[in-house]
Amino acid sequence: MDFGAAARALVTMDASNYRRVPLGVVAPRDTADVAAALRICAAAGVPVVPRGGGTSIAGQAPGTSNGHCGTD
To answer: Under DSSP, is residue 26 helix (H, G, I), strand (E, B) or coil?
Structure first.
């Protein structure tokens, strides 16, 4: 998990005009990392947004609020 300003800025947007700043960014290496990130975020009540390539033109990649954790 990365909570740094640079990592968060990199996933703030997709190909649309929407901008949402996540609380943190997760770059899981395997399914165990995904499971751990989901457990931590669920316990903290933080929504998780699977970003993928961030190429959406409809704004789904940046999430729906500024209080989420993006996975890349």
So the answer is: strand
Q: Report helix, strand or coil for 2.
A: strand
- How far is the C-alpha of 44 from the C-alpha of 60, rounded, in Å? 22
Question: pTM of this prediction?
Answer: 0.68
Other residues' Cβ atoms within 10 Å of the Cβ of residue 20: 19
Please give the full DSSP string across 19-69, using - where no structure is assigned: B---SEEE--SSHHHHHHHHHHHHHHT--EEE-TT---SSS-TT-SSSS-E
**Span 5-34, pLDDT tens digits:** 888 888 777 777 777 788 888 888 999 999
